[in-house]
Design a protein that fits this description.
Largest sheet: 2 strands, antiparallel
Number of strands: 2
Helix content: 25-40%
Strand order of the largest sheet: 1-2
Structural class: alpha+beta
Oligomer: single chain
Shape: elongated
Radius of gyration: 23 Å
Distance between the termini: 86 Å
Order of helices and strands: HEHEH
Length: 109
């Protein structure tokens, strides 16, 4: 009897976290049409229908204004821009469309 009860308790203890993870994954999906545009972010409120979510905004504002029941969704290029961002490339304006550095007309001492 003790072994059966112990087995039942252990089974429940091991399967409960898996069930909770499965529930969380279903609610985590954001429809593709609701993703923020590149370079922008969006506050996504839990339990609010996609059509009633706040509009995309700049990322610092979204991070600053995120409520407890929300999370910040970053546009596709945000992480790429922030990785290794030393601000020396002026947002890519000193590179051509192929990513090659443009010739710098100015002479530096």
């Amino acid at each position: 009897m003790k072994n059966t009860a112990l087995t039942l308790i252990l089974s429940l203890a091991l399967t409960a976290p898996l069930a909770a993870q499965e529930r969380g994954q279903k609610g985590d999906r954001i429809p593709p049409g609701q993703q923020p545009p590149p370079g922008m972010c969006r506050i996504w409120l839990d339990g609010v229908p996609p059509g009633q979510q706040p509009a995309p905004t700049d990322c610092p504002t979204a991070v600053r204004n995120r409520p407890p029941n929300g999370r910040v969704i970053f546009g596709d290029d945000y992480v790429k821009r922030m990785q290794g961002d030393d601000r020396a490339d002026h947002g890519g304006r000193d590179h051509d469309k192929n990513g090659k550095p443009k010739n710098d007309e100015r002479k530096h001492p």
